[in-house]
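### Sample
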Amino acid sequence: MEHAVLAKQVIKSYFLTDPQLKFLRHNENITYKVTDGTDQKSYLLRIHTPASEGFAGVQNTLQGIQSEMILLRELNNNKSLCVQKPIANSCGEYVTIYYTHECDTPYFATLLSWIEGATLTLKEENGSEIAFAIGETLATFHETSRRRMPIQNLIRPMYDAERIDVAISELQVGVELNLYSRGQYQTIQEVLELVKGQLRELDKQENSWGLIHADLQLGNIIMHESRPCLIDFSLSGYGYDLFDVGSASSMLPSDLRGAFLNGYSAKRAFTLNDLRYVEGLIFMDIFISYVFFIRDSNRNSWIKKNAAEICDTLCMDFLEGKSVYYCF
């Protein structure tokens, strides 16, 4: 079934009047902006069908999606955070299960509140203030995910040493696809093995592990009333807090990273000694991202360019013990 037709059928499960749908994108989910014809309120409709097999995982299962809805509902209880709110369907459920004649397995869909505002561009005049606020917001999210008992045992992806092992195995195909050389793949493998050693060290530290966003990028931060709001928790799961710190750092230009780290440390323990771990987790984030796209010939071309840029430079410096935090 075409996803436009599917979306029109699924949205009938919600208490909306004459809803108008606008297609947004298709990556880990098919997403539509939905506007109610009566009150003009907007919502985000997500049909949890990944665009390629690289995006498939526990986050697309019924239990995984239900767990994400629990997470978002709990985060909404913290007034210091601005996140999307799950909307129940006409049966009072937060996950809509929709069957079609064309497919043996059902589609899963969710509806979230729409956060009005502009996507972060880094062209804003008050960049340092925004970077500081992002750090505070991220730290508040990490603290909240530790305190709220209902979100301690959810069915979500794991960003751990086993995830690295899976990535190392999967990334071999990049050599066959001519996305990088055998030597570059071996460099990637060496970096990830070193990161695994760092994870063992982090495992010995208190409060290093918990629920993380796992997909911090410019498109997933909305400036709402001058306040940064984290959106798109589709890939959220269990991992190391510093993984999120690394993701957020790498999306910011180097001159704003100090403000971001100051904002984070204002709410949560962080020292400059942690930067070595953050560097490793940035590499982990990058190479896990390769796995999402590597078998998709329509979307994997950026990998070749990225690998050429970092394998013989940043990766080698990292392996030699040099600081690379401000070089990404």
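Residues 217 and 251 are 6 Å apart (CA to CA). This sample (Phosphotransferase enzyme family protein) is used throughout the tutorial notebook.
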